[in-house]
Amino acid sequence: MIRLDSSDPTFAEDFARLLTVKREISEDVDETVRGIIAGVVKGGDTALVDYTRQFDRLGEGFTASALRVTEDEIAAALQACPPEALEALRFAAARIEAFHAGQVPGDRMETDALGVTSGWRWTALESVGLYVPGGTASYPSSVLMNAIPARVAGVPRIVMVVPMPDGQSNPLVLAAAHLSGVHEVYRVGGAQAVAALAYGTETIAPVAKVVGPGNAYVAAAKRRVFGQVGIDMIAGPSEVLILADGHANPDWIAADLLAQAEHDVAAQSILITDSAELAEAVEAAVERALTTLPRQEIARASWRDYGAIVRVRHFDEAVPLVDRLAPEHLEIETQDAEALSKKIRNAGAIFLGSHTPEAIGDYVGGPNHVLPTARSARFSSGLGVLDFMKRTTILACTPESLRALGPAAITLGRSEGLEGHARSVAIRLNL
Amino acid sequence: MIRLDSSDPTFAEDFARLLTVKREISEDVDETVRGIIAGVVKGGDTALVDYTRQFDRLGEGFTASALRVTEDEIAAALQACPPEALEALRFAAARIEAFHAGQVPGDRMETDALGVTSGWRWTALESVGLYVPGGTASYPSSVLMNAIPARVAGVPRIVMVVPMPDGQSNPLVLAAAHLSGVHEVYRVGGAQAVAALAYGTETIAPVAKVVGPGNAYVAAAKRRVFGQVGIDMIAGPSEVLILADGHANPDWIAADLLAQAEHDVAAQSILITDSAELAEAVEAAVERALTTLPRQEIARASWRDYGAIVRVRHFDEAVPLVDRLAPEHLEIETQDAEALSKKIRNAGAIFLGSHTPEAIGDYVGGPNHVLPTARSARFSSGLGVLDFMKRTTILACTPESLRALGPAAITLGRSEGLEGHARSVAIRLNL
């Protein structure tokens, strides 16, 4: 764990080093992925089934007719879920839906003083593919967070792919798909599933955009199919930054740091505080809490390798540090949390006050938990309804308004050496 | 030029072939670009100057101190512009600014029935780099279209890079930079300029996002730096699709098809019509107009290799064809243009009626001319203010509202095997 102090003479360099710590191991899987995508493009269902048999250890009995998860299987999954968990999923889904409903953008059409009518219209994507990882990283909450904004946007076809290695599936994942309005579910994963979504096979019609987290193969496949389809961000390891003053409860802060650290050995938890006492108390509290945490091995490695406690003299010093870190999650547990939050430019999501642990936002707060990682909050936003819509601009001139605009367009066309552009305007004005 | 007819028995296959025609020659420059980026990351200004001397044919006299274009040079460029062109640029800038001002998104904060406060805040990116090509593809109108939305978004630092091969610059490009509020201009281009924007050098501070069109080297560099910074779309060759009925003027339609074709031999112009007479008349009009067009060699190659005239029995047949083509520009010159436009899902920009040639939108209409190409209007939008802003979601619970949400979060955390998540909530509720 790294301890920094803004009053140290080497602080600037120390902090710069913290910023550039590389947490992701970039496996070089690009050649393998290229081959898998080419295989699915060429072989369709046959290739998709072959890869799935191989990577998910399914036998010869697995054929193209088993690719799609049936309505009966989904109904059975709903039955198999613990009722309490299903109820919690429903509660979360309703809150996520309500929050995202406020993000649906408005259309606009206006006619200006010259008589030119212009504006735009938002439309939903025609189809979307949602990748859901298998195994231990198969989170029903992520299904809700990806699918519900697509439903709110009005996407008429939402497709989900989820690998079922050794034939094992997570009933809560299928239940979440059902609750959030997914239209089709296929039991495939990896680069082969991304290829099927992007290019289509006999069984899986292609989609316009692929979203959702995945391992190195999935990430490489998304990069490769970008252009053929849209993709969302490439997610990196998760991270939290907590600003807390001397009034904060060290056990609560420690719990939040560890909730992040338990995700992944590459996760990162950072505390910035103006209180030496809090810094010390949190450090001790983390050690205490670790001893009873089920995922303590993961959390301990993350905290040891990437955790940090930064002492500042005043929170005004913290603001530029936050903006440079551009954290995925920012908790502010200070007396003036709201005022401080307004000074921050770069953060994926902000959690205000000591009664808003980040985990609330992972599940039931309402805002999306798919957020920019690895400092990309400097230039991108969390997932939302806009990611499932696109804007078409509209322009309409009357003969009179074309006469008002035309001369400038002709001048600019000619000044750019594009006489054909100029003529397409001039011909309508008899110029 | 391809002629298709929806009543032909082979139409489905013919149209599918039209969709998959590959117009872009993908040069394999990735290894070269990788080397250039690594060079700039390691060597900073020294490497940037070396590459610029080499690629832009500048002598030993070109040093780091000459990288930045001075205020005096920009003032001199303004003096050197033809007054009519400068006036047209000012007119265009004002219209583009007015249109984009309507795109600034609103913030939101609401407290729900449970007492949970949530919402979001939009903030401008802290800095943006705008790539402007040199030579013949150096369009002042593109400077306006890229920089003005950034200014409207409130980006406090807008940087422009433009190569000046053999020391030659385009005064209108510098004037456009001045008019649209660019803060810094550097005379560099190619992959080395993209690397400098993304990673910074001694002279050029790094930016958060790189936008703007460029050649194969620039496109490859943008793909490579994505993640380190944000990027806009990778632009392909331009395209227009025109829907026109028997009332349309064939000479006007021909002029619009050629305005697109003159851009690039890889540009594509397509007409869909329900009138055999119009189809024939447009084909003849294109041939006539070509003979006097300055860029007829380019336009003729584009029309010959990628142009198409598609006959349909009724425009209802055209709607799914349009959505599959997902054109960058869609002109609708039919009697019921507006009603027809509302049936279209996928198009970058729509130009309504016979007095709205696409070239008006290139310059002075108001909407952005940076639009999704190569069928990417299925999943993406033209450039706008939102591309220069990002959204931070905000969540705040009171002790009471945490008590209302907590149990569901604890249940979901445990069901996902994330006990640390559950505990960070439970500890605050004494559960």
Automatic annotation (TrEMBL), chains A, B:
EC number(s) recorded for this UniProt protein: 1.1.1.23
Cofactor note: Binds 1 zinc ion per subunit.
Catalysis: reaction(s): L-histidinol + 2 NAD(+) + H2O = L-histidine + 2 NADH + 3 H(+)
Pathway entry: Amino-acid biosynthesis; L-histidine biosynthesis; L-histidine from 5-phospho-alpha-D-ribose 1-diphosphate: step 9/9
Residues annotated for NAD(+) binding in this entry: 131, 192, 215
Domain of life: Bacteria
Sequence positions that bind substrate: 238, 260, 263, 329, 362, 416, 421
Short name of one Pfam family: Histidinol_dh
Listed cofactors: Zn(2+)
Keywords: Amino-acid biosynthesis, Histidine biosynthesis, Metal-binding, NAD, Oxidoreductase, Zinc
SUPFAM superfamilies for the chain: ALDH-like
Keyword Manganese appears in the UniProt entry: no
Positions that bind Zn(2+): 260, 263, 362, 421
UniProt-annotated catalytic positions: 328-329
Family in the record: Belongs to the histidinol dehydrogenase family.
Function according to Swiss-Prot or TrEMBL: Catalyzes the sequential NAD-dependent oxidations of L-histidinol to L-histidinaldehyde and then to L-histidine.
Protein name: Histidinol dehydrogenase
Phylogenetic placement of the source organism: Bacteria, Pseudomonadati, Pseudomonadota, Alphaproteobacteria, Hyphomicrobiales
Gene field: hisD
